[in-house]
């Protein structure tokens, strides 16, 4: 747990002005001495903060390998990769990418135009280019697209002594060595052994005697969100990726999964908010508006359905004008209730708390919740309207409409995402704005339908 005081959490622990001054004065030796002793995260922050002219000096002062470590650590927005790479000489940029871990290099290249990707692959080291090309072919958002091919395997028939030799030779280029994966003569995954077990085992012991053959792996075609859940459930630092014949193709590390979880959460929140994407913070109003307008236009069209429904009940409203006053109250309350139910259902699906056998229980529970909340709200509404307008019949009508609307909205808010999940559609698409609009329609039909039926009593 981080018990650091809030005011110190974002404190800069290096002299930013001093580094800038060293760059301006072109003091290469002093800059490198001070800059390269910083934590990689601090190096990345400084790199992003300085203006392009100073970054050009950094490209001259730092080797491609040193800059690669900055790109590995930096949380650069996806749309900024192209901007930073265009500042560099193409050969320098290609060499820098080749020094990155393969999965991270692929993430960078996926944000570029195809012509740029081809250019960089042509200029970089051939071995690195071959590994990167292999991952670029995997479908986006799958295990294959986020795995790294830089991992360590040892033969199951080898001794601990020879395994340690392999580990010492391959560790410098591996992304993680906490798990050493064991393969047979055909490179099929047969087990896993931890670094700790290797260290404490007798040197002449065969690997197959100390390995664990109870392996949890993921398929190369698995969705990245499913991979994230696997690592989260088992508290792994890394998980192997295999093909349909159990050949190990790569590994996915926990740091990549943190990025996936952040990406998926951002995607779901965007959909719930009725925004196309929130992966990046838009730098201008036009870009932000372009993403929001399609959703708003769609909701306007749906809103016209609500307006058309109200128009159908114009005669009822004209006879008792007071009815119109309470339309926003009923529609808003039903919409809020549906959104609450939607949030519970979507979260349950995302965390897998809702399994097939408990979906019916969820609907029953939400129906009960809707009935209780609807009844309490209805009683409260009846009392308020009667005290305010002294119209008991209208108060009872609005109260009844509130009860039924909340009950129906709560059920629809949980049923719709469950249904969408069942037919393999992202349940987050059943976003708050859509649920709200749908419940507006339902609540108006209920309210004005009841009013029309009992118009003679009003």
From TrEMBL:
The lineage of its organism: Bacteria, Bacillati, Bacillota, Bacilli, Bacillales. GO terms for molecular function: magnesium ion transmembrane transporter activity; metal ion binding. Residues 147-209, 211-269 form the CBS domain. The chain crosses the membrane at residues 293-314, 320-346, 367-388, 394-420, 432-455. Homodimer. It is found in: Cell membrane; Membrane. Its main location: membrane. Belongs to the SLC41A transporter family. One of its GO terms (cellular component) is plasma membrane. Acts as a magnesium transporter. Gene3D superfamilies: CBS-domain, MgtE N-terminal domain-like, SLC41 divalent cation transporters, integral membrane domain. This is Magnesium transporter MgtE. It comes from the Bacteria. Keywords: CBS domain, Cell membrane, Magnesium, Membrane, Metal-binding, Transmembrane, Transmembrane helix, Transport. It is a multi-pass membrane protein.
